[in-house]
Amino acid sequence: MIATKPKIFIERLVFAGRRKNYIVPFAQGLNIIYGDSATGKSSILECINYLLGSSKFIYDQEIESSVLYVMMQVWLSGSAYVIKRDIFDANNQIEVYSATLETMSDIYPQKYSPNFNKEGQDGYFSDFLMSALSMPSIKIRQAPTKDESPLTRLSFRDVFKFCYLKQDDVGSKNLLGEGSYQGVKNKETFKYLFNLLDSNISDLQVELSAALSEQKKAEATYRAVSEFLRTVEFKTEFDLDDALRDVDERSGVASLELKRINSAIVSNSESYSALKDILNSMTLKIAEAESTVQECDQSIERFVRLKNDYHGDIKKIKSIKVAKQVIGSPQLMFSCPLCDSAVRMDDVQHEHEIDRSDQMSQEVNSLLRRIKDLERLVERERGKRGRALDDLKVLVSDRDNARRMLDEEMTSAITPYLAERDAWSYESAKIQEERKGLERSIKVRNQQKQIFKDLQKAADRILALEEKLAAVRRDAPSVSDLLNEMGDALFKFLRFVQISELRDVRIDERSLLPVLRNRDYRDTTSGGLRTILSIGHFLGILSASMRRHTNFPGLLMIDTVGKYLGKTNELYKETDLAEDKKEGVSDPRKYANIFRAMMELGRQAEEFDSPIQIIVVDNDVPPEVRQSYPSSIAAYFNNEGADGASRGLIDDAHLH
Amino acid sequence: MSSAPYFVPDNDSTLNSALVLIIVSQLGKTARARLLLNNERLHLMLYLLKNPIVMNRVLQDLGYSAAGLDEHDEYSVSGISVNLDPLYDNDQLKSLLMRLASMNLIGAKYRKVEGFMYLLTGEGSSAEAALTGDYFDTARRYVGALASLSSVSTANLNAAVEQAIERI
């Protein structure tokens, strides 16, 4: 039976984070998430909605700073999938792995476009979901009453409107878009869900033939791929697994060996650093000696040059003596050599002359003394230079020795390991390469398996469609039958919740919405009553899907059950408080009864062997529900983290 | 001029007078008795004689062979620090010439354009011959090298000296 019914079962929701992953697990039946406001409760439902293809995911700052992307392990009509989606760019393709979270890394994902604007690598996400859930994909008339009306595609998003009662929609007068164009489409979707559309049978036939041709295509692909792999003698799955294990073992050995060699090299090179220190200090000393030699050279040059100047001066002084004897002293008066007129020497005489000869010999002696001094100085500098050069010679030879020792040390310490190390490094690199190759091969093998799985799924789908076709033909459901059944279910629900003055309860044929006391849902003034009616209606759809052949995927998410029931915030003003009081909607027993009704539905589903999943978010939960059904609590968040409760979805945000 | 209590032998007027005698004796006239030294040229020659490093550079720059320098001239402090003052001090030469003239050791002739041209008198020639010793021998050797510059015009010589000084 299961195969013939579309079923969504969400098993695990993962917010893949920067620091860690935040995981919310879910079970079959009722799942309750409750806690203080602003702890990320609604984000959980929004995220599921987003992973099932909604156009945007409104996340709060904590998620933005902590989460990289989101994933969900979900069972679609009995097959496990992981759906992965980028939270920052809603237009990025959605990745779907036909695997669980544990095995997803072994295969390549399919990539689907989240909307109909541009086709993704493997098509549209909506088409994938419809096909995975064996839901016929059809087009419906925009204006159902007119035969020539243009057709519009019915997408998974249209169906999902019946699976998700958002906080804004609970008890809202515009439930399911009543009174708008969207409401028209929703009504068509409702008929589609329950196979009430006139075109249901013919659509199913079209769907079936499409599925058959797809199956043929998949078969051909599988044959071709298998043939190819056989031809190129591709290793079998088992061989690949064995090879991988072998490679991993060898890789472990190689890394151990490398570690051992590295530590041996380190311990052996301790004497190396001591030698290195010695060498450094020697190099410093050599530089010192070299600069001493240079300084000596400069001093020697200066002294010798000066000495030569003195020698020159002595020569000049001696020559002055000779010149004096030859030239003598000038006349005071003499006649001009040209015109013979008298010239007085005084007019021009201002000259330098070294007069007395004893002064001159004193000068010569002093110069000679100075030359001697200089010669001594030069001698001293030469001695200093010579010593510095000797030192230098010793130092340079010491340094060369140290260098040689260092080289030898290095050679003896490291060389023996080099060859070994090279060999192991090479081995390790080779193993890594081999492993990569094996991983690729395994992915190829898995891909082949995937094709086979697709083939089986196609067969299942065909079977399901055939069964459904038969069932639709046999049951030929009528609208009034269904609405009567749902009206009865709603009546039972309202009685269970203990609504007073129960009369004229039904589902209206025109609006397809509840009617109580002959008053349309839209005209009910008590918001609390509308909340109860809207929840009852959605539960009614879920319940009907358990008993019939429908296209409803057996999942219901409700955000804030207690809305208008004297519990929720003042944001929502679409209610008449006096009416609410008259109806007694804030009676905690009624509130608790709603939860009980949901629990009961879960139990019935098990009886019908048609499992359902209800995920409910609220600020609070009736204490008796908490106590009687503790396993139905999927998550509880407390702002203060009191009693060991998690502080929120992103439970480590306060630490950062 | 200087009354400082030390000698600067290089500036001694007797010594310089003797050098002027040697210069005029060897460079004063051509073989055909044409006078060559006016004030400016005599000044240049005296400067080059007393700064042998500059002298050799000028000779080499102008394509003549350099004189072999005395060790004391080549490797000395004065050899690496050129004193430019005497090159622009005309008074010193003037006083030397006047002194030599007063003792009738030097004669002069006036020629238009070039001005006074100098030559030795008979007494001057014998005085020059009496100048003996290492220093004067070296000086004569340097002046002999300067003789190859006789065909270079004074203007070109001036330029060459300036260039040579710039490079030291």
Rg of chain B, nearest Å: 15 Å
Number of helices of chain B: 10
Arithmetic mean pLDDT of chain A: 84
Q: Write out the CATH superfamily name of the largest domain in chain A.
A: P-loop containing nucleotide triphosphate hydrolases
Note the overall shape of chain A. Answer: elongated
Largest protein interface, residues of each chain: A-B, 40 and 53 residues
Estimated structural class of chain A? alpha+beta
Low-confidence segments of chain B: none
Terminal CA distance of chain B reads 29 Å
Estimate the strand proportion of chain A: 5-15%
Shape of chain B: globular
**Average pLDDT metric of chain B:** 87
Give the tally of β-strands of chain A. Answer: 18
Which ranges of chain A are low-confidence, i.e. pLDDT below 50, for 5 or more consecutive residues? Answer: none
Strand order of the largest sheet of chain A: 2-1-4-5-6-7
* Number of domain units of chain A: 2
* Cα-based radius of gyration of chain A, to the nearest Å: 50 Å
CATH class of the largest domain in chain A: Alpha Beta
How many domain units of chain B? 1
Structural class of chain B: mainly alpha
Largest sheet data of chain A = 6 strands, antiparallel
Give a brief description:
The complex is a heterodimer of chains A (656) and B (168). Chain A is α+β, with helices and mostly antiparallel strands and 656 residues long.
What does it look like?
The complex is a heterodimer of chains A (656) and B (168). By secondary structure, chain A is of the alpha+beta class. Chain A has two domains: 2-196 and 477-655, Rossmann fold; 268-421, Helix Hairpins (Orthogonal Bundle). Chain A has helices spanning 41-51, 61-66, 125-132, 156-160, 181-193, 200-231, 237-268, 270-327, 357-475, 479-497, 527-547, 577-583, 588-607, 623-628, and strands at residues 8-17, 21-25, 29-35, 67-76, 79-86, 94-97, 110-112, 139-141, 151-153, 164-165, 333-335, 342-344, 506-507, 514-516, 519-520, 555-559, 613-618, 633-637. Chain A has a six-stranded antiparallel sheet. Chain A has a five-stranded parallel sheet with strand order 10-16-17-3-18, sandwiched between helices. Chain A is elongated, with a radius of gyration of 50 Å. With 168 residues, chain B is mainly alpha-helical. Chain B is built from ten helices and two strands; from the N terminus they run αααααααββααα. Chain B has helices spanning 13-27, 39-50, 52-61, 71-74, 77-80, 85-88, 90-102, 122-130, 134-146, 154-167, and strands spanning 106-111, 115-120. The longest helix of chain B has 15 residues, at 13-27. Chain B starts with 12 loop residues before the first helix and ends with a helix.
